[in-house]
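Support request from a user on the community tier.

User writes: "When I paste my structure tokens into the form, the page sometimes reloads and wipes my input. The last time it worked, I copied everything first. Here is what I submitted, just in case something in the input itself triggers the reload:"
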């Protein structure tokens, strides 16, 4: 059977990928950021997952104003790396796990959460940067990945409460997969507070971010009450990405062990947040 052994949250700032790709990780500006992921690198080796279920948002790469799914799941054998305007990142093609992905899609849809099933899709920095942060620069990803895009770009995005409950349905679906013994880690990516445009461009709210980190482990239900307006006001126009952390948290057990926490400002005008949790299954 499949077992969810833990969850990991991280920002997916595109500049982090560029810094890695261009050999800048030891430069003073970037070193403090990348040092915060050393524990993640050792933890992922210790956890040795077979599959990463990676919740992220597409940045108008696979999707556009022509097609905007609220929740989608990648069921393909592999996912090529997207060209986001300066060529694809020099990272390996992402290998999927169709059997588990289709099982999850069936289970979650029958639990009355609508998913868009995707059999062909390129993946952008929202997915590849988190993988690079924990696995480094590799010739082949040592894990299968199920992409799970969430719309947090075009209004209206899903609510925090909807995302947390979807996470619970995902957790149930993964645990009910009986065809193969699998160790699964769920990634929730995006955030933390940041705004990339308008009069408030560059907004970072450390107080809000740290309170979010304090609550997501022991009291995620409190975070489900945050409205769209509050996210916008307190964490900027892109802070809504934090609802994807709640999908991760919902998929884990009720009780979790916090293994690692990291917070850093600045990283390309963004607050970088990162956490690791281990499920405490009964």
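"...and here is what came back when it finally went through:"
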């Amino acid at each position: 059977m499949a077992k969810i052994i833990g969850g990991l949250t991280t920002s997916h700032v595109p500049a982090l990928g560029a810094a890695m790709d261009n050999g800048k990780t030891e430069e003073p500006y970037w070193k403090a950021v990348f040092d915060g992921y050393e524990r993640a690198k050792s933890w992922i080796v210790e956890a040795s997952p077979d599959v990463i279920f990676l919740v992220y948002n597409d940045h108008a790469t696979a999707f556009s104003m022509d097609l905007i799914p609220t929740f989608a799941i990648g069921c393909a054998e592999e996912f090529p790396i997207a060209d986001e305007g300066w060529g694809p990142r020099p990272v390996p093609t992402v290998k999927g796990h169709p059997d588990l992905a289709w099982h999850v899609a069936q289970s979650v849809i029958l639990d009355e959460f609508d998913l868009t099933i995707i059999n062909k899709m390129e993946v952008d920095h929202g997915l590849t940067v988190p993988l690079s942060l924990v696995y480094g620069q590799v010739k082949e990803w040592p894990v299968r990945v199920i992409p799970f895009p969430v719309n947090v770009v075009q209004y209206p995005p899903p609510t925090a409460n909807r995302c947390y409950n979807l996470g619970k349905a995902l957790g149930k679906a993964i645990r009910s997969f009986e065809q193969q013994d699998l160790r699964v880690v769920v990634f929730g990516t995006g955030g933390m507070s940041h705004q990339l445009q308008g009069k408030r461009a560059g907004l970072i709210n450390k107080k809000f971010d740290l309170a979010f980190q304090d609550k997501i482990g022991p009291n995620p239900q409190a975070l489900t009450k945050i409205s769209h307006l509050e996210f916008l006001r307190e964490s900027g126009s892109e802070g809504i990405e934090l609802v994807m952390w709640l999908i991760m948290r919902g998929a884990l057990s009720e009780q979790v062990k916090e293994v690692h926490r990291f917070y850093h400002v600045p990283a390309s005008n963004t607050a970088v947040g990162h956490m690791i949790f281990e499920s405490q299954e009964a």
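Agent notes: The reload is a front-end session timeout and is unrelated to the input. The chain has one domain: 2-279. The beta strands are 2-10, 51-56, 72-74, 78-79, 94-95, 116-118, 144-149, 182-189, 256-264, 272-279. Escalated to web team.
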